[in-house]
Amino acid sequence: MRNGWLWLREIEAEQVPRSDADADAPLIVRRAAPGGAVRVSARSASAEIGSVRVTLAGPLHAELTDLVVAAPFRGRRIGRLLLRAAAQVAAERGARFVELSSDDDGAGALNRWYRDAGFLDCGPQGTALKRFRADIGALMSKLG
C-alpha cells in the first residue's frame, strides 16, 4: 500500500489518447492486472486520483470493482470518466453489460450516483451491498 492506496501490480501500461480540448482533464491509463483484469486509473500531473478494476465475469458481462476517487477530487466528474473508460475496456473485450456492487453508507447518495450514471438495480447482495447493472452502449452514451 502506498499513500493509502492499494496498488495492483502494474504492467503493460497503455495511455488513452486525449484531444487538445481535454488537456486539463485527468490522464486515463489502463494497466493489466492479475487474473486477466484491467485497472483503469485517472492521474493528475502529479498523482493517481482515482481508479477502477474491470474483470470479465462471463461471456457478455464484466464486473467493475474497487472504484475510488480521492476525496479532494470528488465532484469533478472523475468517477464518471472512470466509469466510461471502464465500460470501454469491457466492450473491447466483448462484454455487453457491466455490473458492480455498491456499499452505500446508508444515506443513499452512492446508490443514487450509480442510478444517475445509468445503472439499474439488479438486486441486493448480502445485507449491506446492492447490485447494479448497465448496458454498456447506454452507459457510454449517458456518460458522454
Describe this structure as you would to a colleague.
- A hairpin with a 5-residue loop joins strand 2 and strand 3 (38-43).
- The longest helix has 15 residues, at 78-92.
- This protein has helices at 78-92, 109-117, 136-143, and strands spanning 11-15, 27-32, 38-43, 48-56, 61-69, 97-102, 120-125, 129-135.
- It starts with 10 loop residues before the first strand and ends with a helix.
- 22% of the residues lie in helices and 38% in strands.
- The chain is an alpha+beta fold and 144 residues long.
- It has one domain (11-143): Aminopeptidase.
- The chain has an 8-stranded mixed beta sheet.
- Helix 1 (78-92) packs antiparallel against helix 3 (136-143).
- It has 3 helices and 8 strands.
- 29% of the residues are buried.
